[in-house]
Write a structure and sequence with these properties.
It is built from two helices and 23 strands. With 389 residues, the chain is mainly beta. It folds into two domains: 283 residues, no CATH class; 87 residues, Macroglobulin (MG2) domain (Immunoglobulin-like, Sandwich). Strands 1, 7, 8, 9, 10, 11, 14, 15 and 16 form a nine-stranded mixed sheet that branches. A five-stranded antiparallel sheet has the order 2-5-6-13-12, with no helix packed on it.
C-alpha cells in the first residue's frame, strides 16, 4: 500500500528561544506550526485489520480522541505535542477503588529512515490510518493512574527467531538494525542520563529516564521530549536520529478504556473492564534541521524537492499549495479529479530555488477528493486534498 502522508516541513528552531521546556506550560508551543489536525469522535478499536481495510469498530472515548499534533526539535532533542478532547494519561487505578487497573499510551511512532521496507505497518498494531515503514517509538506509558515509563522502542525484528537472536545484543551494543520488522517483536528501554538503560515491559516498574512528559492542568494537552541519542546508532555508527535528516512521524493516543464513555455505554461499572481505544493522526514528514534562532522557514534551502500538504484542507473554495526546490528547474503543478482528469494547471514554468506557494480556486468544481501533482524532468509526486462546499 502506497504511503499517503501529510507533508510538514518546518524550520527546526524554537522561535526566539533555544528549546521547548517540558513543564506543562504550553506558551513555548504557540509559534510552532500545527503538523496535523485530527477530526473529533473518530476513536477506534485496536484490533489489527487487513491491508487496505479499516478497524472493525469505532468507539466513544474522549480521553484518546486526538485533535492536534505539533512537532519540533533543537540540535539534540525531538519534541512532540498533542491535544485531546478528554484527559491525556487518564486511567483507572487502585487508589480510586477500581477493580481493574488501566493503561494509557502517548505515542510518537517514527519512520527514522523514510523507507517503507524497514520497520512495520501501522495496521499490525491496530493503528489507523495505515502506512508502512515505522522503525522506532518515543512514548510514555501511564499505568494505575500515574506515569510509569518514558521509553524508546525498536521494531526491526521480523519474527520470534530474529528477535531472540538479536535484541539483547543490539541493545547492549547501542545499535538499531534498520530492517523489515513486525509490530509483535520489539525491544523497549528507558535510557538514563548516565548512558545506562533498563529494559522495560508494559505494566512494569516505574522508571523516569531521559524521555520526559508534562500534561496541562486540565489534561487536554501534553508535551514530550526525547533526546536524539536515546534512539541509538546504526551498526555503522551513524546516529539513528540526527539533524539534517527527514523522518516520517505518526502520533497516537491509545488506552485500555475502563473509564471510557464506551465502557459506560456497554453498562460496565467504571474501572471494571477494558474497552481498548486508539486514535492516530495522519502521518507527516518532518525535516530535522539544525538548531537556529529567529530564522524564517522560507530562508532554508531543502536538499530535495518538497511538496507540502495544501492548507487549509478540507477547503472551500480556495487553498494554498506550497513547495520547495533545491535548485532552479522546470516545474509543473496540475490538479486532477478522482477520475484522473486534469481540471487545472497551476504552474508550468521555470522556478527558482527555495520556497513557493500557489493558490488553487475550486469555486467552479463540485465537492470531492482531488489530487495535485508536482512534476519536474526527473521527479513527480502526487498528494490528495478535499473540496468541501
Amino acid at each position: 500500500m502506497k504511503r499517503i502522508i501529510l507533508l510538514f516541513i518546518m524550520q527546526t528552531i524554537i522561535y526566539s528561544q533555544d528549546k521547548i521546556t517540558i513543564d506543562g506550560n504550553f506558551d513555548d508551543w504557540v509559534n510552532i506550526p500545527i503538523a496535523v489536525t485530527d477530526s473529533a469522535n473518530n476513536v477506534h478499536d485496536t484490533e489489527p485489520y487487513n491491508e487496505g481495510g479499516q478497524p472493525t469498530d469505532f468507539f466513544e472515548y474522549s480521553d484518546v480522541d486526538l485533535l492536534e499534533v505539533k512537532f519540533a526539535n533543537d540540535d539534540s532533542t525531538l519534541y512532540g505535542y498533542m491535544k485531546a478532547t478528554g484527559i491525556i494519561g487518564n486511567t483507572s487505578s487502585e487508589a480510586a477503588g477500581h477493580t481493574k487497573i488501566g493503561r494509557y499510551y502517548f505515542i510518537f511512532t517514527i519512520d527514522v529512515d523514510d523507507n517503507d521496507t524497514t520497520g512495520y505497518p501501522l495496521r499490525e498494531g491496530g493503528y489507523y490510518p495505515d502506512s508502512k515503514g515505522y522503525d522506532m517509538n518515543m512514548e510514555v506509558e501511564f499505568y494505575n493512574g500515574e506515569f510509569n515509563t518514558g521509553h524508546y522502542l525498536n521494531h526491526e525484528y521480523i519474527n520470534r527467531t530474529d528477535f531472540d537472536a538479536n535484541w539483547e545484543n543490539d541493545l547492549a551494543e547501542g545499535i538499531v538494525r534498520l530492517a523489515p520488522g513486525t509490530y509483535d517483536w520489539y525491544s523497549q528501554w528507558v535510557m538514563f542520563a548516565d548512558s545506562t538503560y533498563v529494559v522495560v515491559k508494559d505494566k512494569g516498574d516505574v522508571y523516569q529516564g531521559i524521555i520526559t512528559i508534562a500534561i496541562s492542568e486540565d489534561g487536554h494537552e501534553a508535551e514530550i521530549a526525547a533526546p536524539f541519542w536515546g534512539f541509538l546508532k546504526t551498526p555503522e555508527g551513524d546516529n539513528i536520529i540526527d539533524v539534517n535528516r527527514n523522518i516520517i512521524v505518526s502520533a497516537s493516543l491509545e488506552a485500555s478504556g475502563e473509564l471510557s464513555e464506551e465502557a459506560e455505554n456497554l453498562g460496565y461499572t467504571p474501572g471494571s473492564k477494558s474497552v481498548w481505544g486508539s486514535n492516530t493522526a495522519e502521518p507527516f514528514s518532518y525535516y530535522i534541521n539544525s538548531s537556529l534562532v529567529n530564522i524564517n522557514n522560507d530562508e532554508i534551502v531543502p536538499e530535495n524537492i518538497v511538496l507540502n500538504q495544501n492548507y487549509p484542507n478540507p477547503f472551500n473554495p480556495t487553498t494554498k499549495i506550497s513547495f520547495a526546490l533545491p535548485q532552479s528547474m522546470d516545474v509543473k503543478i496540475d490538479v486532477y479529479n478522482s477520475l484522473g482528469q486534469n481540471v487545472k494547471q497551476l504552474v508550468n514554468s521555470k522556478m527558482g530555488v527555495g520556497h513557493h506557494t500557489v493558490e488553487f480556486d475550486g469555486a467552479e468544481l463540485s465537492s470531492g477528493i482531488y489530487f495535485y501533482r508536482i512534476s519536474t524532468p526527473e521527479y513527480s509526486k502526487t498528494m490528495k486534498m478535499m473540496l468541501m462546499k
